[in-house]
Design goal:
This protein is mainly alpha-helical and 370 residues long. It contains 17 helices and 3 strands. A 3-stranded antiparallel sheet has the order 2-1-3. Helix 8 packs across helix 17.
């Protein structure tokens, strides 16, 4: 099995690896034996492989723990209906943290793992488990809404793509050959369209576009944040990943250094920028709210609220308030993004029809005129 790994090496530097092992346990043991500290370890996804629902797992675990059972006993009960729990039980028996065991197994995401780790460190695991469960449920609800809204647009896009490929590679070559056999030249607009399509389909051109986008991906992301609807969606998406664990960490009374070390584990480039800036400012003795002020991920209102709350000494409560507010605003941003799909689909269909006319209708008209 091939595993995707994010870990800290012996010097504390973050690195990403891909390795083949017979199981997750052997992969984790190999990494730990070489001095790596695992942040997350996931088996490379396979098409049509069913992914474990972290919200359902955390909900069941929370119910059992709230009933007074130990984590190990809870896993043993859950194992009766899920054979994958065997490795988790072994990890708990070895004295590993619940957050590390669940994260290493790939059953929960990095953000949920950070929330659970904060609760374990603070000695309040049940409440952290409830927070992680609520977070996972919120993410699942949002994903379900987005997927249900995308069914129809994706169906149309797939249908038009299939039709376009068939016409370009099945019909167009025959029309071109027919015109050559009849010694009739294609209309200039059709020849131009064919040349453009041939150029775009070249392998080197595709690689060039990919490399260009990849090299400026982070700058492109921060540019998109200034776009009204798409920027709002991305901003709320990454705030969802950051604010909930941040609120929990502050509520546990952890110092800023511990908080920074915890949120470093969230593997998202925009959040790494925020965390690096926060760490730099804290080392210089600057207020935490300055990191919010410098980050394009937050609105002007959020920046003002964090600055005021830090002065008033209730920064953690403000972060919790922003996390709850962001949940509602995130759903609104999704609705706004989905409202763009209809005009976008109309534009795509219009472009498709224009290409169809230029490539197929105009040559037929030319034949009739000839």
């Amino acid at each position: 099995m091939l595993f995707s790994i994010s870990a800290l090496d012996s010097s504390g530097a973050r690195c990403r690896l891909q390795e083949e092992h017979t199981s997750r346990e052997t992969c984790a043991s190999s990494l730990l034996g070489r001095g790596y500290r695992i942040i997350y370890l996931h088996e490379k996804s396979v098409f049509f492989k069913k992914k474990t629902d972290s919200s359902a797992l955390l909900m069941e675990l929370h119910e059992l723990v709230s009933a007074g059972l130990t984590v190990q006993k809870s896993f043993e009960i859950m194992n009766q209906g899920n054979k994958d729990m065997g490795s988790l039980i072994d990890g708990i028996r070895r004295g590993e943290k619940v957050s590390a065991v669940l994260s290493t197994s790939g059953l929960i995401g990095v953000t949920e793992a950070v929330i659970l780790a904060a609760g374990e460190d603070a000695g309040n695991f049940p409440e952290a488990l409830k927070t992680a469960r609520d977070f996972a449920l919120s993410v699942r609800t949002i994903k379900t809404k987005v997927i249900s809204m995308l069914y129809y647009p994706l169906f149309l896009l797939v249908l038009m793509t299939a039709a376009g490929i068939f016409m370009l590679f099945g019909v167009l070559p025959r029309i071109t050959a027919l015109f050559a056999e009849l010694d009739i030249s294609l209309p200039r607009s059709t020849r131009t369209a064919i040349e453009i399509i041939s150029f775009i389909s070249q392998y080197k051109f595709t690689i060039l576009i990919y490399r260009t986008i990849y090299s400026v991906r982070e700058q492109l992301f921060f540019k998109i944040l200034s776009v009204p609807i798409a920027g709002n969606f991305l901003r709320h998406h990454y705030q969802l990943m950051l604010l909930h664990p941040l609120a929990l960490l502050f509520s546990r009374g952890l110092n800023v250094r511990q908080i920074i070390n915890s949120i470093k584990q969230i593997n998202a480039a925009p959040l790494r920028h925020f965390t690096a800036d926060l760490e730099k400012l804290v080392s210089s003795g600057v207020k935490i709210s300055e990191a919010f002020k410098n980050s394009p991920l937050f609105t002007r209102r959020q920046k003002e609220l964090t600055a005021i709350s830090e002065e008033a000494g209730n920064f953690g409560q403000m972060i919790e308030h922003l996390a709850r507010t962001n949940d509602a605003e995130y759903e609104q941003s999704i609705k706004g993004l989905m409202s763009l799909l209809e005009p976008l689909l109309i534009a795509i269909i219009g472009a498709f029809l224009l290409i169809f006319i230029v490539l197929f209708i105009l040559p037929m008209v030319a034949v009739d005129i000839g």
